Q: What sequence folds into this?
């Protein structure tokens, strides 16, 4: 479903993605972890071309993403993206946030879009917050609305960029629960996170990155309990001491 | 015909340089006066004495609420009625000082008020006098907030000096106004005047943009 | 010195002042609307990224901001006739106010747009909204709130700036003060009355501007 072929990217002199080869299959849940600055966020931002790559190919659902000519709007409609900082639109209610893209990108009639939005809010357990503005919601609730916003486009792939890193500890659970449910429904997911519990529960594969390279991939249990490389072991010991 | 007027304009160009010199003189003396007066007023405006602060507030509103040209007329035409005779040049400086200090006062007060209370308390706790609190703790930090709009205000003040031409101060705009009577090429004459203003104010605009980016 | 302040003469001249006030009002309102439109166009050009419209817009904005309004007024007043354009003084004045304030308004709008968080734009991009849709649904609604107080500030500046039109003999408020001074030689009565009217306009606009600012802070803080 998603394919990276010899992908390279630089920010100035910094080599952020160094010869990445990767395939993500339909229905797979991939967790990406690694120290900060390792290129993991850049990796998933390339999938819907929030970042452009300089070398190599990225193919999503047989569409080449790296080419200028590719139909980005159509592509992005198939991919939901959840940001670390939520990025809900502060001047719109939850419902309006969710309905904006379906109505304007997919041209779904308003009444239908509203139905979809209500359905998605239910799915993330916030049906009572449809008329609330982002500023009236807690961080966890905001992130769940953001997930609902992504789901409203009926995407085939959901990307999560550190979805729980900006949250207070007591709110992490509610967001992860929503993601676990999503995974169990067979959604193709690519999640940048350090939440080991989540990874062990639902991930099919864990990918460890450092300095722009994929250092190690494996089943979550294997990876966390018996990392093959020293760098991964070092990283895991650091996140465990928290 | 245009070439002929252009020739004339070149001939009297020194006259424009004299005007530019007068503009620079009025502008820089005024910037100096306004800054000093504006900081003093601003510190009192932000100060604890509510009564003084209010009075300064009223002064600022009166000045900010009226056009500069009206203020100049009041100073130049009314003071003589009250027995205070002023030449055009000192009257211009007085008007500029009164107007500019009101604007700078608000910028300074805003900067001082942006400093968190904890900084004052820390300074008080280490036994600094009020003057020392301002001098060493508050004003240096407030400068970061004050500087970008202050330089922006300087640009406005330099441009406002053009208005003192109405009471006959021989600065750039006045020179243009006198010239255009003899050389009826308005576009040419006032383009030249505009270019000369541009030369003094544009560097300050660039400085203000730079400060805004750096302090943000 | 204020003892012999002559109120009777002020009342005698009241129709003149009220006429001036009306002109100042009309000139200001027409100019600010035109300036707003000019500012929107100039700002759009400036942020467009298309070189042939971007650089002229930058030149326009920077020239307007670095030369005095009075010089711009004289430039048009003495300059347009040499181009064969003879238009009434009041229209020349409005044109100058429009061009001058338009440049400042362009910068106010630009600042408003750049105050919208980068992540908001990315969220719009990620859900497939195109440039126009992102502008319309995400950026402009958020930028608008931020720009209201400085736009009102510019309106205050414009009202005061319109006093300079008296120097090209437009019959507005300041001009009525000049007229009375020349007829009766009573500058104190004339210009204090003029100042009084300006302060009334200023206080109205200022109250409105403070209110909008509070409204704005309230909305952000919730």
A:
């Amino acid at each position: 479903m998603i394919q990276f072929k010899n992908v390279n990217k630089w920010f100035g002199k910094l080599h952020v993605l160094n010869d990445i080869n990767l395939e993500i299959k339909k229905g797979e849940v991939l967790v990406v972890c690694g120290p900060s600055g390792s290129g993991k966020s850049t990796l998933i931002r390339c999938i819907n071309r929030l970042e452009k790559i300089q070398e190599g190919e990225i193919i999503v659902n047989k569409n080449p993403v790296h080419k200028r000519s590719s139909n980005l709007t159509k592509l992005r409609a198939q991919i939901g993206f959840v940001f670390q900082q939520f990025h809900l639109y502060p001047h719109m209610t939850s419902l309006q946030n969710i309905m904006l893209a379906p109505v304007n990108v997919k041209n779904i009639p308003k009444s239908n879009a509203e139905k979809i939005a209500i359905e998605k809010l239910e799915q993330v357990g916030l049906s009572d917050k449809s008329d609330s503005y982002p500023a009236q919601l807690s961080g966890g609730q905001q992130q769940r609305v953001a997930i609902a916003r992504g789901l409203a486009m009926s995407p085939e792939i959901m990307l999560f960029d550190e979805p729980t890193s900006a949250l207070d500890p007591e709110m992490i659970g509610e967001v992860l629960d929503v993601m676990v449910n999503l995974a169990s429904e067979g959604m193709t997911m690519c999640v940048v996170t350090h939440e080991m519990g989540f990874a062990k529960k639902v991930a099919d594969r864990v990918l460890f990155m450092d300095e722009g390279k994929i250092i190690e991939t494996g089943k979550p249990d294997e990876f966390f309990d018996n990392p093959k490389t020293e760098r991964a072991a070092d990283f895991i010991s650091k996140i465990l001491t928290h | 015909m245009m070439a002929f007027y252009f020739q004339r304009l070149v001939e009297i160009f020194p006259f424009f340089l004299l005007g530019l010199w007068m503009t620079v003189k009025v502008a820089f003396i005024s910037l100096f006066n306004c800054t000093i007066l504006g900081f003093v007023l601003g510190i009192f405006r932000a100060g604890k004495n509510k009564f003084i602060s209010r009075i300064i507030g009223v002064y600022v509103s009166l000045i900010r609420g009226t056009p500069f040209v009206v203020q100049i007329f009041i100073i130049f035409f009314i003071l003589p009625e009250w027995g205070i005779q002023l030449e055009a040049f000192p009257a211009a400086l007085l008007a500029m000082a009164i107007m500019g200090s009101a604007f700078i006062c608000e910028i300074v007060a805003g900067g001082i008020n942006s400093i968190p209370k904890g900084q004052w308390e820390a300074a008080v706790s280490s036994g600094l006098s009020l003057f020392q609190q301002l001098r060493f703790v508050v004003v240096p930090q407030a400068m970061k907030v004050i500087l970008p709009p202050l330089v922006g205000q300087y640009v406005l003040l330099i441009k406002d000096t053009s208005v003192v031409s109405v009471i006959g101060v021989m600065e750039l705009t006045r020179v243009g106004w006198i010239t255009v009577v003899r050389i009826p090429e308005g576009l040419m004459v006032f383009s030249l005047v505009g270019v000369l203003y541009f030369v003094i104010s544009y560097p300050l605009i660039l400085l203000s943009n730079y400060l805004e980016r750096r302090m943000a | 010195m204020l003892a012999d302040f002559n109120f009777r003469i002020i009342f005698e001249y009241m129709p003149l002042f009220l006429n001036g006030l009306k002109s100042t009002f009309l000139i200001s309102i027409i100019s600010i609307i035109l300036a707003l439109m000019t500012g929107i166009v100039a700002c759009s050009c400036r942020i467009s990224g298309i070189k042939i419209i971007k650089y002229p817009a930058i030149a326009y904005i920077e020239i307007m901001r670095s030369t005095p309004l009075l010089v711009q007024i004289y430039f048009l007043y003495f300059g347009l006739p040499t181009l064969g354009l003879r238009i009434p003084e009041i229209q020349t004045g409005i044109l100058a106010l429009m061009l001058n304030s338009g440049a400042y308004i362009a910068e106010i709008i630009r600042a408003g747009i750049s105050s919208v968080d980068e992540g908001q734009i990315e969220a719009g991009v990620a859900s497939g909204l195109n440039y126009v849709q992102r502008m319309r649904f995400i950026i402009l609604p958020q930028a608008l709130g931020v720009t209201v107080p400085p736009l009102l500030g510019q309106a205050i500046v414009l009202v005061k700036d319109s006093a300079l039109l008296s120097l090209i003999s437009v019959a507005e408020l300041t001009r009525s003060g000049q007229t009375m001074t020349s007829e009766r030689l009573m500058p104190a009565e004339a210009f204090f009355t003029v100042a009084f009217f300006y302060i009334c306009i200023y206080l109205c606009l200022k109250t409105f501007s403070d209110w909008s600012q509070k409204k704005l802070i309230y909305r952000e803080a919730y």
Observations:
- Chains A and B do not touch (no CB pair under 8 Å).
- The radius of gyration of chain A is 18 Å.
- The CA atoms of residues 224 and 236 of chain A lie 7 Å apart.
- The mean pLDDT of chain A is 90.
